[in-house]
Amino acid sequence: MRIEGQFNGCIERYDLWHPEVPEAWDGKLILHLSDLHVRAGRAISRVVGELLRELAHVEADLVVLTGDYPDKPRDEEAAGEVLERILAASRVKPGRAFGIWGNHDSAGMRGKEAGWKGVRWLDGEGEDVGGGMAVAGMSFPEDVVGLIEGLDRAHISPRSHFVLTLVHYPTEVYSAAAAGLPL
Fold first, then answer.
1. Contact 144/179 with Cβ under 8 angstroms?
2. Can you give the pTM of this predicted structure?
């Protein structure tokens, strides 16, 4: 695998190579956002403002969100507003934004998911996005066995699809890899 990084403001670009990526997805851009930790009273921090400006120059083929949008309880409304602005600025095509929840995402935050149009929230499930690729997700606390069962119900497997798996805790990649999920 080859990883090359390029830092440009608050967005870092990495070129990843994986031998199993379907040809239809070769060269596609995936925008990954995580751990915004938005606080009420200063929802548009310097970094978030810079992110919103930079997103105007990014044309992503897929947007993936991996949790911790508010910093703490009672920050949910501010985090939702920031998430809406980020989604609008990302200019991703309909059906190409997926998200999971992290450990800072309260039940109140999770209950607002319908307000963020265009995001498919995954929790122990996956979706075929065409071209031999599927996106799967486990919200906190992650459950790889439950995810594999959800993928089976959707007729998605690592044998039939390249499965991009969204997790909040980085250490979950080990159990996902052990279950045959490649990235």
1. yes
2. 0.91
d(CA 127, CA 56): 27
Tokens describing residue 152: 């089976």
In terms of phi and psi (left: phi > 0; alpha: psi -120 to 50; beta: otherwise), the region of 130 is: left
122: closest CA among 94, 83, 151, 93? 151
Q: Within 10 Å of residue 119's Cβ, how many Cβ atoms?
A: 20
pLDDT tens sequence across 20-42 = 999 999 999 999 999 999 999 88
pLDDT in tens, 69-100: 999 989 999 999 999 899 889 888 888 999 99
Nearest to residue 36, comparing CAs of 94, 92, 84, 88?
84
Residue 60, H or E segment: none
Residues in the chain, overall count: 183
